[in-house]
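Researcher: Re-running this chain for the archive, since the previous output was lost when a drive failed. Same request as before.
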Amino acid sequence: MMKKITLVFTLLVIVVIACKKDKTNNKIIGRWETEGAPQLAANHIHEFYLFDKQGKYYLTRMVQDPNSSNYLGYLQYTSGRYRLQGNTILFYNKESYINDPVNGPYASRDKLVKANDPDASANFTIESNGLRRLAISSICSPNAFCVEITSRYQFIADED
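Model: Regenerated structure tokens:
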């Protein structure tokens, strides 16, 4: 009887811990779009993140005509895995494809070329005052040649 009580208690503790972890991850799950699209010549650059429940993410950077709102082509498409640790998001097992500028300022997805894109980590925050907003800030190691950049996104949809 004591073994059964111990087993039930252990399972209950595991379920409670798993649920707490799940609530943290659930905040980021869904589709996010850049706030205030930067310009590429006369066109806008839109960046989308999709974070799913299985720990996969997709990053899409596309060029959009500001007059028609039509997407003209891709700058980048990345898929990989993510893991949250506190306020840090780890991006790993990444597979990235980018536009070769020789082909023009953007390309169809099938014309993107594979890029070497190492694992990375970034700080993130999620605000939920009215609209859900996500800020992702790159992390540069002490002797790295990089610029720390913060990108801001607004939540646009739940995971499909």
